[in-house]
Fold Putative golgi apparatus part.
Amino acid sequence: MSPLKPSLVAIGQTGPTVAGGSVLSGAPAPSKSKGLEEIDALGQSLIKQALPHHPGSQGDFPNSTPQKIPLNQIQKSQPQSASAVGGAGVTGAPNGVPSSAMGTLTSASANPGVAPPSLLDLSPADRIGSPGKRPSSDPLSLSDVFVPLELVQPGSQLPLTLHDLNGVKVIVHFAKNQPQPHVSVMVVSTMSTNTSSVKKVLFQAAVPKSMRIKLQPPSATELPPHNPILPPAAITQVMLLANPSKDKVRMKYKVSYAIGDETHTDVGEVDCLIETSS
């Protein structure tokens, strides 16, 4: 017998074969599973050669496992990624709650003892704006009493002269007007028979504390020089007296005026017998 010549080994066979494809006697039987693994390895090798190689891509190697990241590194990276979203940190906010809502809740919880005002807690006067309380009625008050001079009616009492000097006369006339049951009306008239003008005419009056007096604005403060042909000019001023207890009226007065460069002043006290209705 001639010596055997070596031949190509078939894919999937482990032992040598002779020409014609016969297997040498005594060689072990090929393993079918091992042959399939070799075919798979060859296919993977061909795929690697045909496709471009990207070292950073995990899709090139189906059997490669993803890189494992330690848990402590993941926890450190979470606050940074959370603070980068929207430029403001939302760490600690519940899932599904926007940061704007959390800001509202935080500001409300900052002052737990201060509750926002509610319209239900306000009384109707506070909602609409109640006017100021009116002061209690004062029987001595004359702030709301005003009697025009043209409505004054002369009374039955005789006039009372308070001052008659330097050609200047001051007379009190009693009227029958009674704007309130305890209020009496008088008119103070100042006349001049002086040939010079009388300026800065001022009349003042005071009464005891149990009553009150009010002087309305005078008609003028100056009197022209007297002309004998014409009636003397006069300054009139309405005076109101409140006397609810009907006490005896003791009035103090002061009259002052200027004639030329000289100032004259007269101070006196008089009993006013004012008739009041019972």
